[in-house]
Amino acid sequence: MRNIILAAGLLGSIFTQQVSAEGECGKVTIADMNWSSASLIANVDRFILEHGYGCEAELLPGDTMPTSTSMIEKGEPDIAPEMWSNSVKELIEKAVSEKRLVIAGQSLSDGGEEGFWVPQYMVDKDPSLQTIAGVIANVKSFKHPEDPERGAFYGCPAGWGCQLSAENLYRALNLSHAGFDLIDPGSGAGLAGSIARAYEREKPWFGYYWAPTAVLGKYKMVKVDFGTGVDVEHFKACTSQAECAAPKVTMYPKALVQTITTSDFTKKSVQGFDYLSKRAFTNDQMNGLLAWMEDNQADGDIAAEYFLTNYEDIWTQWVAADVAAKVKQAIKSR
User: Fold this and answer.
1) Minimal CA–CA distance to 221: which of 280, 146, 283?
2) Which helix (H) or strand (E) holds 182?
3) What does the pLDDT read at residue 200?
4) What pLDDT does 19 receive?
5) CA-wise closest residue to 82 among 57, 60, 105
6) Where do the TM regions start and end (predicted)?
7) Cβ contacts of 172-178, under 8 Å, gap ≥ 24
8) pLDDT at 24
9) How far apart are CA 32 and CA 225, in angstroms?
10) Are 68 and 91 in contact (CB under 8 A)?
11) Residues of the chain whose pLDDT is less than 50?
12) Over the stretch 270-279, which tens digit does the pLDDT of each residue have?
């Protein structure tokens, strides 16, 4: 009888320890990347993991290459909330195969986006402008600021990685022959400014841009359809390369933007990992939040509080009802 009682007590103790372990997340480190959308997501994750799942969450400064390398070699940080995986694709795939890293889910559900754009108000007046054929047919509408006989196409700033793809697609689409001149905006601010000036006057604009960005949150733009779909292999081998003798027309491939964790984190908090697998923003949502951050000069922490306070309909879909209740209470107590 005594042995049975001891055995029962031992089993009870083990069960209690297991329940306790599952309920205790412990210390979790999160990469706070040095761009606005990533910092916003990192702060949202910190708040929800801390107040919803009982983690001792801490933010660490991060960037794509050093963060991914540190996660693989040192097991820290535990979480990279917004990893643009294309630039470190082979490194991450190898680490996943070695069970050092785990892909939790997508940070941006529709991926990072690039393309050639025109303002929404132009498409509202003439729906054909959402196609490249329509843009070319209306080249005279997109007047060059210094040569009214030519159209203006605003490219990616010189020295940026996107300069190559934008110029190669400009060639592939025969935009020069169609009457467009390629304009170097000089900088990211110059490119953003050209869109802002066009919007203030409701003037035509045609050029390269990307998402998620504050600019596309403030100014509604339509991505021009080339009618070709995406040729991923050609884009990698030629369109995005300096030595691309004969670029073909292709839409930009979607950039993979993922949440990556260490394998250890999946053991620390099963529920926390489940949250990360569900937590994703659309580009439209993130564009709007980035615009708010810029207008209010808000950092990631302030933006996270704004998001959690004003967008319950979005984030409550990522967590269970009891977790949502804890997070809401924590927001009220701030």
Assistant:
1) 283
2) strand 180-183
3) 95
4) 36
5) 105
6) none
7) 172/239, 172/247, 172/248, 172/249, 172/250, 173/132, 173/136, 173/226, 173/249, 175/136, 178/136, 178/139, 178/151
8) 72
9) 35
10) yes
11) 1-22
12) 999 999 999 9
Euclidean distance between CA atoms 154 and 217, whole angstroms: 19
Are the C-beta atoms of 81 and 30 separated by less than 8 Å?
yes
Kindly report the backbone phi and psi dihedral angles of residue 55, in degrees, each rounded to the nearest multiple of 5, phi listed first. Answer: -80, 150
- Tokens matching residue 298: 């808000």
Rg (C-alpha) for the chain, rounded Å, is 24
Q: Which two tokens stand for residue 280?
A: 């994703």
| Angstrom distance (rounded) from CA 74 to CA 102 | 15
212: nearest Cα among 31, 32, 40: 40
Give the global pTM.
0.86
Q: What CA–CA distance (Å, rounded) separates 142 from 181?
A: 10
Give the residue from 201, 170, 199, 200 showing the smallest Cα distance to 184. 170
Q: How much is the pLDDT for 3? A: 45
Place of tokens 């003798």: 245
